[in-house]
């Protein structure tokens, strides 16, 4: 009996289709499960599209993207998922997501795509709110600074470093997820738009943590832009641009853009829940956003 | 209408023309009035004549008619035969006989209009062509009783008629009298002038209607003829009397002649008045032009008026006015020249700063410009009282002048006295001269006086106070006073500035020497510079600096002289008190010799003779109370050292002594520090437990010889390796001492807490705060690398962040400060951080000399270092260090201001060691 479940691994930029031979075995209408072992980010989103397209050539009945190992998805990843879904629809092939983590679910919920992918979000995730917390007395800031060349491989490294720093403060999983989303978007932007000479321009990351807040500053060497010019994106029409800023504003409490310093610098602040709850609440929809030129 | 006549001449002309015009108009009016009067008189007389003639004629014709009718009646009644009769009658009034002839001319019966014997009415007709004679014809139709009918016609010569007429009374011959028949023909019968012959020939017969009209036209209206017409009663004839107007107006014309004469006289008178007036105007014009010339300053203009009247005298007084003005002008010019000369003289006097020259210039200008024969300028003598002469011109002054000057200067008044010239006193008339004293007045009293003698031509009045010359002289004296004061001040300033210059020279010489010494921090350099500078400043031939050696003997430490002489000098060793130099050293005073070869001191003489030296100046180098050496100057010629030179040398020696002491202290300290640092600074090993090391120490500029940077690699007993880089604050010996203390304290602590960098830092901080009381501080980066586990723990005490270079040199992670600098006084709990390292990663440690290095006016900062490390690329530790050094040298130019220490660690062997972790632990545990 032939195993109906096949796995396609998208791993480190290479696609391996271990069940390449099952087409020859004459069971083309099986369910094909693609197991994505990396975070669905800018650097591997194209790989997913290629993998789905390749899988479609085997004419399966259904394609299931297994996101069990995926901890985060950024806007490029969302776009890849949307593209995959529309490709499958065009080919009359079923499309499903499996093992969606809380973090990915939050992104889906934030971008309003949960129904598109037929996900049922735990209402607790949707209702959660962060509270701004304030420290009294001297703040024991811990600073982490990195300077990296604009290589796509380093985006995930930098993101992990920041997440490590956040982890040292001891934030819970959801906030870590938000931070990961926002930092991933900011880094992707810095690479995509802020580095005219890829591999030569530098990306500077500065992360400051204290028990009540996390501040991330990401500076690139790109030309100045107007962050207000990007509109709220329509989830129905996923685009390449604009989704990142939207997600950043959704995920973080304060997002500030500084142009010409000398490149662009985005500063994002996430208030961390402290032991003493504050009465004032700040929802994501009213997150402050300032622009400094 | 307003007539514009500006000049008198034109007014005269206008009046003249008007007067002539009025005379002419009046004359014309007279003439017309006379003419009409004369004409009226003429006409009335003519009318009288015409009436007379007309009545006479009427009378005659009536008489004739009566005779004729009588005749006719006679014929009709048949009393007379019908033939012709000739008859006449006499005019009783004029005794003239009138002759007339009557003819009866029968008519056919049929033609007879008379039915009854009767005569018809007699008609009188004029017959003109009766043989060219004017005739009066009477015709009457007659019927005789016989029945015969015919006309009786009577003719009578008209002239005959007129002859019997009385002539007009008093009438001139130019009058004319005539008859005009009822038909209109004119018969001129009588010309009273011509006395026409009585042959009956008339002068004019006007049958021609044109001529008649002309005649009538003339009557009463023609200017040539005047006439009247009178009807002759009972005949239908008219009498005309005419007279030529010229004749009629003869009287009038005569009167007009007289009138014209008077008019001409009046016109001539007017013209004469015009001419006279014109001449007056001409004179006035000349006066006016002259006045205008005066007004514009032409005083030389003269006017010539030779009218001989008041105007002429006015002209001459005008000329006199011009003359006097010229005189005034000349005087004014003279005065202005005098003033200008004095002003120029005052300028000349002020421009001279020498008081004698100034006085001379003043005296000369008084003579030149004011006309004095001799002049002298006196100045108050402040020391001795009285006055002294500072300049004179002309003859020498005498005692009287001095007294006058003294008096004038003291009183500040202008004095004028008369002096008898003694030279000419012997002659008959001793010449009097006027002597004038003018004070040199300033705001604070007078400085002296000008005395001048005025000889020929000038009177007392010319020089009296208030006269121009006196005023000028006084004003000039005031100016000169300022000039004299200037000169006096200049004298005193020069004296001061000489003293000052001496001081400035002195000070600048000292400065020159100290400037030469001060850049040299080491003793030998300073001494050499001192010797060279001293020789050049004082001007000696050789200079030697003696310092005491260990045994207290003075030996030459440095000198400025020839090479051969140097060897000789360096062999010299003098005990204190020996020779001139020794004396200066022990007695702490300068010792000089004019000629050392003749000195009383035998050693000095001997040394001098050996080296052929003559002049010697020894100056002790004194710090506080202690002599630390001697500067000795040698000259090859005998030389008397001046007091100022000795003082100068003392000053130089004072400064030099301090500098020499500082330099010797510094030299000693620097050598100690250098030795110490050399001992402390150990090279990092190239390899240690799988870790590669590369280090570089680049000292700063020689401004401070020893810096406080150090790095160290300390293998720990448990297989780990501690790496440290530190920067001790301060420079020099103390920094080296602190560095040593810090280094060994650290080493002790490292082994106490091998696994906890924060504890090491905390302990070090506490110890340093305790022992050194914040006298310095250290920034330090301390890391412990565990090659077996691939981890790096670090604590950073205020040091610039170390770089962890990962991801094939594509990413730099800064390892930032985790606490305050060590030893800064604050208690601090340092924090350790742990970070994973992989093979291929590099750790770069450095001191702030790198980031403070200046490139193009800007410090490199961390960004610059990042750039340079990226530039180095993915390489080994030693390559990274070399590359950084090259880039630093290339970009900022080494050596730099601050020390630079670089230490790079590569984790090549980390992975290799991961497997052997347990063995190592075991070994160490064992």
Cα-to-Cα separation, first versus last residue of chain A = 65 Å
Low-confidence spans of chain B: 168-174, 191-209, 211-223, 915-926
Task: Compute the number of helices of chain A.
Answer: 7
Side by side, the strands of the main sheet of chain A go 6-7-8-10-9-11
Please, what is the average pLDDT of chain A?
A: 74
Overview of the structural elements:
- The complex is a heterodimer of chains A (293) and B (926).
- Chain A is an alpha/beta fold and 293 residues long.
- In chain A, 32% of the residues lie in helices and 23% in strands.
- In chain A, strand 7 (202-210) and strand 8 form a beta hairpin.
- Chain A starts with 5 loop residues before the first strand and ends with a strand.
- With 926 residues, chain B is α+β, with helices and mostly antiparallel strands.
- Chain B is built from 22 helices and 34 strands.
- Chain A binds chain B through residues 143-149, 151, 153-154, 157-158, 161, 202, and chain B through 801, 807, 810-814, 816, 866, 870.
- Strand 6 of chain A pairs antiparallel with strand 29 of chain B, so a sheet runs across the interface.
């Amino acid at each position: 009996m032939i195993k109906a479940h096949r796995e396609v691994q998208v791993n480190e930029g290479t696609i391996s289709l271990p069940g390449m031979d099952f087409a020859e075995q004459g069971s083309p209408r099986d369910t094909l499960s693609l197991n994505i072992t990396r975070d669905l980010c800018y650097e591997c989103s194209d790989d997913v599209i290629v993998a789905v397209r390749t899988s479609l050539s085997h004419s399966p009945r259904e394609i299931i993207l297994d996101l069990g190992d995926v901890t985060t998805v950024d806007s490029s990843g969302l776009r890849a998922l949307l593209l995959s879904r529309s490709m499958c629809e065009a080919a009359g092939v079923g499309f499903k997501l499996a093992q969606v983590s809380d973090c990915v679910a939050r992104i889906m919920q934030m971008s309003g795509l949960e129904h598109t992918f037929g996900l049922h979000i735990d209402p607790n995730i949707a209702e959660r709110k962060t509270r701004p917390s304030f420290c009294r007395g001297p703040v024991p800031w811990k600073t982490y600074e990195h300077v990296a060349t604009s290589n796509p491989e380093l985006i995930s490294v930098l993101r992990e470093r920041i997440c490590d720093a956040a982890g040292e403060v001891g934030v819970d999983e959801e906030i870590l997820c938000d931070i990961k989303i926002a930092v991933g978007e900011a880094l992707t932007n810095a690479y995509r738009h802020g580095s005219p000479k890829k591999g030569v321009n530098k990306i500077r990351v500065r992360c400051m943590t204290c028990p009540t807040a996390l501040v991330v500053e990401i500076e690139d060497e790109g030309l100045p832009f107007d962050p207000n010019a990007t509109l709220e994106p329509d989830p129905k029409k996923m685009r390449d641009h604009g989704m990142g800023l939207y997600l950043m504003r959704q995920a973080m409490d304060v997002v500030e853009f500084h142009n010409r310093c000398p490149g662009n610098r985005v500063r994002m602040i996430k208030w961390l829940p402290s032991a003493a709850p504050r009465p004032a609440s700040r929802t994501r929809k009213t997150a402050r956003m300032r622009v400094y030129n | 209408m307003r007539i514009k006549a500006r000049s008198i001449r034109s007014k005269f002309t206008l009046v003249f023309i008007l007067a002539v015009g009025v005379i002419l108009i009046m004359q014309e009016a007279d003439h017309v009035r006379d003419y009409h009067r004369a004409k009226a008189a003429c006409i009335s007389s003519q009318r009288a004549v015409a009436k007379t003639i007309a009545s006479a004629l009427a009378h005659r014709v009536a008489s004739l008619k009566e005779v004729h009718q009588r005749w006719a009646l006679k014929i009709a009644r048949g009393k007379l035969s019908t033939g012709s009769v000739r008859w006449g009658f006499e005019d009783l009034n004029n005794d003239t006989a009138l002759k007339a002839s009557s003819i009866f001319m029968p008519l056919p019966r049929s033609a007879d209009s008379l039915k009854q014997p009767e005569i018809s009415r007699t008609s009188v007709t004029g017959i003109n062509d009766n043989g060219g004679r004017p005739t009066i014809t009477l015709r009457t139709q007659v019927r005789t009783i016989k029945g015969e009918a015919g006309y009786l016609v009577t003719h009578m010569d008209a002239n005959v008629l007129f002859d019997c007429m009385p002539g007009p009374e008093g009438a001139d011959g130019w009058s004319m009298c005539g008859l005009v028949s009822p038909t209109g023909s004119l018969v001129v019968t009588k010309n009273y002038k011509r006395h026409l012959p009585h042959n009956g020939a008339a002068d004019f017969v006007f049958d021609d209607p044109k001529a008649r009209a002309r005649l009538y036209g003339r009557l009463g209206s023609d200017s040539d003829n005047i006439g009247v017409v009178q009807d002759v009663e009972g005949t239908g004839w008219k009498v005309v009397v005419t007279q030529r107007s010229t004749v009629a107006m003869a009287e009038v014309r005569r009167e007009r002649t007289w009138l014209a004469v008077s008019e001409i006289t009046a016109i001539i008178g007017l013209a004469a008045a015009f001419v006279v007036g014109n001449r007056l105007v001409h004179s006035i014009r000349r006066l006016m032009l002259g006045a205008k010339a005066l007004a514009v300053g032409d005083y030389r203009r003269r006017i010539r008026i030779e009218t001989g009247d008041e105007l002429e005298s006015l002209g001459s007084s005008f000329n006199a006015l011009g003359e006097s003005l010229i005189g005034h002008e000349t005087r004014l010019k003279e005065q202005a020249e005098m003033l200008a000369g004095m002003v120029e003289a005052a300028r000349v006097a002020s421009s001279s700063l020498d008081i004698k020259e100034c006085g001379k210039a003043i005296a000369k200008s008084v003579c030149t410009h004011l006309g004095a024969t001799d002049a002298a300028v006196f100045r108050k003598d402040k020391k001795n009282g009285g006055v002294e002469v500072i300049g004179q011109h002309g003859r020498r002054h005498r005692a009287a002048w001095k007294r006058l000057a003294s008096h004038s200067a003291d009183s500040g008044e202008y004095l004028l006295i008369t002096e008898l010239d003694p030279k000419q006193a012997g002659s008959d008339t001793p010449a009097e001269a006027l002597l004038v004293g003018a004070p040199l007045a300033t705001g604070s009293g007078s400085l002296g006086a000008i005395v001048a003698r005025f000889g020929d031509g000038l009177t007392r009045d010319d020089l009296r106070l208030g006269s121009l010359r006196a005023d000028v002289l006084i004003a000039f004296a005031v100016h000169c006073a300022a000039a004299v004061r200037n000169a006096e001040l200049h004298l005193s300033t020069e004296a001061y500035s000489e003293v000052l210059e001496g001081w400035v020279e002195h000070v600048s010489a000292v400065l020159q020497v100290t400037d030469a010494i001060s850049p040299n921090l080491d003793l030998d350099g300073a001494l050499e510079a001192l010797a060279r500078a001293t020789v050049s400043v004082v001007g000696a031939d050789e200079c030697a600096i003696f310092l005491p050696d260990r045994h207290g003997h003075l030996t030459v430490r440095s000198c400025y002289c020839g090479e051969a002489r140097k060897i000789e000098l360096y062999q010299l060793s003098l005990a204190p008190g020996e020779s001139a130099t020794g004396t200066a050293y022990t007695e702490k005073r300068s010792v000089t010799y004019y000629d050392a070869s003749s000195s009383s001191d035998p050693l000095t003489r001997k040394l001098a003779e050996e080296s052929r030296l003559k002049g010697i100046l020894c100056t002790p180098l004194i710090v506080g109370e202690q002599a630390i050496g001697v500067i000795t100057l040698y000259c090859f010629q005998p030389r008397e050292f001046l007091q100022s030179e000795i003082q100068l040398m003392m000053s130089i020696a004072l400064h030099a002594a301090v500098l020499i002491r500082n330099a010797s202290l510094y030299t000693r300290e620097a050598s100690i520090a250098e030795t110490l640092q050399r001992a402390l600074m150990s090279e990092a090993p190239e390899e240690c437990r799988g870790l590669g090391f590369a280090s570089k120490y680049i000292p700063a500029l020689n401004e401070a010889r020893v810096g406080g940077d150090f790095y160290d690699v300390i293998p720990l007993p448990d297989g780990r390796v501690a790496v440290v880089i530190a920067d001790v604050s301060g420079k020099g010996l103390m920094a080296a001492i602190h560095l040593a203390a810090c280094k060994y304290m650290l080493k002790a602590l490292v082994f106490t807490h091998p696994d906890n960098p924060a504890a090491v830092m905390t302990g070090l901080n506490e110890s340093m705060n305790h022992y050194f009381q914040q006298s310095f501080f250290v920034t330090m980066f301390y890391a412990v690398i565990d090659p077996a586990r691939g981890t790096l723990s670090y604590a950073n005490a205020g040091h610039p962040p170390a770089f962890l270079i990962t991801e094939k040199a594509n990413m730099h992670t800064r390892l930032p400060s985790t606490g305050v600098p060590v030893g800064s006084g604050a208690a601090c709990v340092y924090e350790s951080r742990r970070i994973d390292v992989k093979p291929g990663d590099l750790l770069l440690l450095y001191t702030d000399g790198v980031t403070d290095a200046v490139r193009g006016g800007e410090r490199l900062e961390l960004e610059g270092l990042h750039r340079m490390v990226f530039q180095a690329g993915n390489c080994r530790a030693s390559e990274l260090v070399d590359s950084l050094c090259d880039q630093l040298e290339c970009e900022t130019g080494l050596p730099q201001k601050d020390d630079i220490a670089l230490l790079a660690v590569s984790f090549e062997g980390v992975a290799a060691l991961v497997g052997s972790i347990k063995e190592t632990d075991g070994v160490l545990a064992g």
